[in-house]
Design brief:
By secondary structure, the chain is an alpha+beta fold. The protein contains ten helices and 19 strands. The structure holds FE2/S2 (inorganic) cluster and fe (ii) ion. Fe (ii) ion binds next to α9.
């Protein structure tokens, strides 16, 4: 069985995908007012807010949000803006707060958004601001260990928004998986460029040739579809050589060996039967997973090896890699420059994977400008390298729009859904 249940794949509308959608300020502003302010956004990680007052701050486009753990254990989210004269309140991405003190005139906001203290309260002719002012709250829900927010007061529930994604994520029981290597990169390309890239595997042979020996590169052996709610999905076999290799090229290389050894399997035993690695690992994981700290009960066999890859509309891609870890990419638009965005590449380790490498607490998140450092995640570094090159071509007078292969249907679907927001037919 390749996938739990097929998704509906509503017909593609084939809206044109043109270069100026990645470069124009006018298009960027329409995206903000008609789409970003209406959708559920994955913004934080609830398991990282460990105590009363733990917070995370995240920026997206011109906005910034504070997500903060309350005394009763719930999490609430507020615009990161002081109601006195508009200063931003917090500048750290994470921390613990007793109260949020505005850096400008020192107004003190409690963690529940109420105003607890101001200077010279008797000097306000409309009365003490503490009596009637609060931070402005946004909708906030928790799911799969993440904090999701929505700026639209009229929004549908997160569960309805995610549709079939909800149930499929739940099966992995990943809500408390721990943050592994994580980077945020300031990149000179539009946020849609890497999200388009995540919507297709057509680039695997040319951009990630190093994977040929351990992940399927032929689209004929992958499955992809999309749902009414606007999200896309793909499953791609891993722990196997690609069917695009010739008989002579088949071998268990070092990376495939690293996928076998933790399960007590030897590369040499698969000489001449390289295509049996995937099924053998599935069987061993099924038999011995729970004693090694993994939770596989709700997963079917293919999920124990393969990448299950979800493009959550609009800006997140989540891959469950062989049920061992999550690779998450999130593309956040810049404040005002359409040709720039913040690319988040986060990893979350399952209990079994964390135990294997001795990880006990979240890894530090690194921030850097593209070109000054590497994420040290080979595939993601390769993807960003082609994304910046593509951005340069998208503004050329010599480019007149895409010509997509069938296996790039999810790229078209992503733009069709975006277009539905822009024309006002969603949500
Ligand atoms: S702007 Fe925050 S206290 Fe004045
Ligand atoms: Fe890629």
């Amino acid at each position: 069985m390749a996938l739990a249940r097929p998704w509906g794949c509503p017909p593609l509308r084939n809206v044109p995908i043109l270069g100026d959608q990645y470069t124009s300020r006018e298009f960027f502003d329409r995206e903000w007012s008609s789409m970003w302010t209406k959708v559920w956004l994955l913004m934080g990680r609830s398991s990282e807010l460990s105590q009363d007052g733990s917070y995370q701050m995240e920026e997206i486009g011109p906005e910034s949000f504070i997500m903060i753990r309350q005394k009763d254990g719930s999490i609430r989210a507020f615009y990161n803006v002081c109601q006195h004269r508009g200063s931003r309140l917090l500048f750290n991405n994470e921390g613990i707060s007793n109260e949020i003190v505005c850096p400008y005139h020192g107004w003190e906001w409690a963690n529940d958004g109420s105003l607890s203290q101001v200077q010279d309260p008797e000097d306000f002719i409309d009365g003490n601001p503490c009596d009637d002012m609060t931070l402005v709250e946004v909708n906030c829900e928790l799911f799969a260990g993440f904090i999701w927010i929505n700026m639209d007061p009229e929004c549908i529930s997160l569960k309805d928004y995610l549709g079939p994604v909800w149930e499929e994520f739940e099966a992995y029981e990943s809500h408390d998986w721990i943050r592994g290597p994580s980077s945020t990169v300031d990149v000179n390309c539009n946020w849609k460029v890497p999200q388009d890239n995540s919507c297709e595997s057509y680039h695997l042979p040319s951009v990630h040739p190093q994977g040929l020996k351990w992940i399927e590169h032929s689209y004929k052996y992958c499955h992809f579809d999309w749902c009414e709610e606007g999200h896309n999905r793909m499953s791609i076999p891993m722990v196997t050589p690609s069917h695009s290799l010739t008989r002579e090229e088949l071998e268990v290389d070092d990376q495939l060996r690293e996928m076998l050894e933790p399960w007590g399997l030897k590369a040499e035993d698969f000489e001449g039967r390289e295509f049996e690695t995937r099924q053998t690992v599935q069987s061993v994981k099924r038999e011995t997973g729970s004693e090694r700290g993994y939770q596989f009960d709700q997963l079917f066999d293919d999920q124990l090896t393969d990448a299950y890859h979800y493009n959550i509309f609009p800006n997140v891609t989540v891959s469950f890699a062989g049920s061992e870890y999550i690779g998450l990419q999130r593309m956040r638009p810049h404040r005002r420059d359409p040709e720039r965005h913040y690319y988040d590449n986060f990893m979350y380790l399952s209990h079994g994977a964390a135990a294997r490498i001795g990880a006990t607490k979240p890894e530090e998140r690194r921030f850097f400008k593209y070109g000054t450092d590497l994420m040290n995640r080979e595939i993601a570094d390769q993807d960003l390298a082609v994304s910046t090159g593509q951005q340069l071509g998208l503004s050329s007078r010599g480019y007149s729009g895409v010509r997509l292969a069938g296996q790039e249907g999810r790229v078209q679907r992503f733009h069709d859904v975006l277009d539905e927001y822009l024309e006002g037919s969603r949500p």
